Amino acid sequence: MSFPRKKLVAGNFKMNMTSSEVAPYLEVFRQETEKLNDVDIVLIPPFTAIAKASEILGGAQKIRLGAQNMSPEAKGAYTGEISAPMLRDLFVRYVLVGHSERRRLFGETDELVRRKLVTALASELRPILCVGETLEERQAGQEKAILEGQLRGALEGLTPDQISEVIVAYEPVWAIGTGLTATPEQAQEAHLFIRDYLGKLAGTSLANKARILYGGSVTPANAKELMSQPDIDGALVGGASLDPRGFAEIVAAATPEE
Ligand code: PGA
User: Fold this and answer.
1) Ligand 1 pocket by C-beta < 6 Å: which residues?
2) Which CATH number does the domain housing residue 140 bear?
3) Among 52, 75, 126, 223, which has the highest number of CB atoms less than 10 A from its own CB?
4) Residue 156 has pLDDT above 70, yes or no
């Protein structure tokens, strides 16, 4: 079976790494990934380290930058917020939207997620929309209903063209930062469900082009098996992205076999 979709591996540093720590990280990471091709790499540092990372990376095509969050507003009296134009100004290309930590710890609703998504698309920031069920929801057999609800809440009403710009990350909440990973079969089943639902919203050919990432305790040890599933088009990596060598191994696991 061939996988026509180019894989994407994104590292979400969460609230880790200062601006001064980012330079030595990048030195190692760039060296380790220098020979890796045919894979999109996105680093998602905290806001305060983005400027430094951007300055070091310059216009390098190979490693792109993302942000962990963004205001739905363009500017104004929103103390503590960061806007899309501010991110664009630092050459940020991607933005996480609706990460489960934002939903759970900071009260982000589907409605807010949707507004951020619309702003990102209008600002030429490529959104990585995070969806996923909790352990209780999975145990109650509700995971598909939850995924459908989150996708509908974020995407319904967008045009197929807009939906085609969105990258979806399936991140089961019970697998994030817990060391528990979805089995490749569980992840594949969820990814296929997501792709089918994207097909309903935007048409099958578009859904077949959409990239759907898996996130939740991805490590160098399990990355390859997960990403060789037919509907898993890459990974969103939290904890394991903080080690530049280990993260480069995960990127290597996403490159096509020679
Ligand atoms: P984890 O986090 O890899 O540490 O489980 C993934 C994420 O939250 O994106």
Assistant:
1) 12, 171, 176-177, 215-218, 236-240
2) 3.20.20.70
3) 223
4) yes
The pLDDT score that the predictor gives to residue 4 is 78
Structural tokens at position 136: 């209780």
Ligand 1 atom closest to Cα of residue 217 = 5
The confidence score (pLDDT) of residue 180 equals 87
The residue contributing the CA closest to ligand 1 atom 7 is 238
What is the rounded CA–CA span in Å between residue 76 and residue 89?
A: 17
pTM over the 0.85 mark: yes
Find the domain containing 173 and state its range. 7-254
Mean pLDDT score, 91-97: 97
User: Does residue 1 form part of some domain?
Assistant: no
147 is a domain residue: yes
Tokens, residue 163: 């939906």
**For position 1, what pLDDT does the model report?**
42
| Count of the separate structural domains present in the chain | 1
**Is residue 242 in a domain?**
yes
